[in-house]
Amino acid sequence: MKKVRKEQKKGVNSLIILTAWSIWKHRNACVFEEVNPSVNTIMGAIKNELGVWCLAGARKLRELNLVITSPVP
Fold first, then answer.
1. Where are the domains of the chain?
2. What is the dihedral of CA 5, 40, 68, 56, to 10 degrees?
3. Per-residue pLDDT of the chain (73 residues; tens, 9 = 90+)
4. DSSP secondary structure string for all residues of 36-53
5. Which pTM was predicted?
């Protein structure tokens, strides 16, 4: 975090929280719903949540200008 510019720290923190939350939810699905672990599933969930958070007003997250181009099958 020391290398992140001051004006980007809130966005980076939001991205970290969003990522951790998505991993936790997927982990719970694997444990309690017998879902197979999948990085692609987690990445898709992160992309979806990122869009929702931005629509909900996460300005600093939107300002990071994250470019996610790889398609998730």
1. 15-62
2. -70
3. 778 888 888 889 999 999 999 999 999 999 999 999 999 999 999 999 998 998 898 888 888 877 554 455 5
4. PP-HHHHHHHHHHHHHHH
5. 0.80
